Amino acid sequence: MSEHLKQVCYTWFDHYYSQLLFKAILGMKTRLSVFIGTIWTQQILSLIYFEGHRNRTEKWDTLDRVPFLEYNIRKVDIENRPSPRLFSSHLPYYLAPKSLKNNKAKIIYVYRNPKDVLISFFHFSNLMVRLEASNTLENFMEKFLDGKVVGSLWFDHIRGWYEHKNDFNILFMMYEDMKKDLRSSILKISSFLEKDLSEEEVDAIVRQATFENMKFIPQANYNSILKNEFGTRNNEGAFLRKGAVGDWKHHMTVEQSERFDRIFQEEMKDFPLKFIWDLNDEANSNHSAK
């Protein structure tokens, strides 16, 4: 294992896993049905695949329906899990199970503009006991831009998955598009998954997958999981904080924003996926950082 891979491995699995489990995940042979990212997508897929989740007759947490592959805190038997095998992950492409390559397994990669990722990650790190807190946004921004956070460098993560997209059966979804038009996004996801849904089923999924409604659904909002299984520094925060597009404008100074812009342009100047930095200024925000 290279020194770089070791560093990323320890970054991802510190407090949770040993190298032994890391190697097991990398080489696992289990047939994965769908491999996704974000808590929001956990809820959407739970609603698409499970009628009992959709009509609220079953009270399973989304963490049990779509467990995190690298954070298996509930000791899910991955190898013997019945179909459909749904997993969440924030792993970079080179730490994903090798069996995902050239496989029928479907991957949904949800990406978000990195300024809002930075702000969300800053608040989340300060809330979670298991993560290193930062006294200031400036301090956290330094770590974020150096890749010294869980998941390593954001630019490498999205570039890695995109540049190797032909090795996988992958759909890229933009977080901001999902915020703008959740119904169309759910239809796009269900089409990719080859799941036929009635109008009534789509309506039920849209209703229960809005960020605002998820905050009040115990099976989806992670409140009890944070408190009882992860551990928080205080009772003032929540896993689902705002979910707003452009919240970075309320936190970053002009100097911080302009510095981030310069680094973004250098790292992503030839990257084809578009980014939206503010829904109110979408016409001028479709790639370059603003």
Automatic annotation (TrEMBL):
User: What GO cellular component entries does it have?
Assistant: cytoplasm
Q: Name one GO molecular function term.
A: sulfotransferase activity
InterPro entries under this entry? Answer: P-loop_NTPase (IPR027417), Sulfotransferase_dom (IPR000863)
Q: Which Pfam families match?
A: Sulfotransfer_1
Q: What is its EC number?
A: 2.8.2.-
Which keywords fit this entry according to its UniProt record?
A: Cytoplasm, Transferase
The record's comment on protein family reads:
Belongs to the sulfotransferase 1 family.
The protein here is known as: Sulfotransferase
User: Native species of this protein?
Assistant: Oryctolagus cuniculus
Q: What is the lineage of its organism?
A: Eukaryota, Metazoa, Chordata, Craniata, Vertebrata
Q: Which gene encodes it?
A: SULT3A1
